[in-house]
Structures are given as C-alpha cells and as structure tokens.
Amino acid sequence: VLGGAFAGLAGAIVVIGIDHLLAQGFSPGYGFIGIAVAMLARLRPLLIVPVAAGFAALTVGGSFLGATVGVSSSVALVTQAVLVLMVLALWVLPPERGRGGLA
Q: For residue 27, which of 17, 37, 15 has the smallest C-alpha distance?
C-alpha cells in the first residue's frame, strides 16, 4: 500500500509539477510489468530481483531485435506473455497423478 501511495504521488508530481498536463503515453505500463514480476516471483522478495532482471533483459533485448535480426520488438512482449501464462498454468493445473492416463 505504501509503495502504491508513493508511486501515485510521484506520478502526480510529474503531471502537476513538471509537465503541467497529462500527455498521451504518460504511463509506459510499469505497473503491469510489476504485477507480472511479483506473480512470477510468487511474492518472495529474494526472487523478485532475478525475475525483474529477466524481464528487463527481455525488454531491452526486444528493442534491439528490429535493428539486428529484422524481427519486430513485439516478440519480446509475446515471450513475456507466454512465460506468464505458462507459469500460471503450472500453478492452476493439478499435477499428474500417475502414468495410467484417466484411470
């Protein structure tokens, strides 16, 4: 709660004190990325740093894909989304109870 309050205060300071208006594209989506990082780290503080570093590597690496390989930088976003969905599926789906199939 305290972190959210400080983030809101920082955003208000930027809008009111620096820009004097709310510009289009003001928020680059850090809140949504933070939620995904916290979810993948399972809210464990020691895991948040390496997971955030992995997301940062995907984001920065994705920005260079267009210049070096000729692939759209959206591939990094798709990779992050697939990673989040795979981890979510591992949490939600029950583990297999044997090799016998449906028995």
A: 15
pTM greater than 0.70: no
Show the 3-state SS of the chain.
CHHHHHHHHHHHHHHHHHHCCCCCCCCCCHHHHHHHHHHHCCCCHHHHHHHHHHHHHHHHHHHHHHHHCCCCCHHHHHHHHHHHHHHHHHHHCCCCCCCCCCC
pLDDT in tens, 63-89: 888 778 888 878 888 988 898 898 888
Cα dihedral: 28, 29, 33, 36 (round 10)? -170
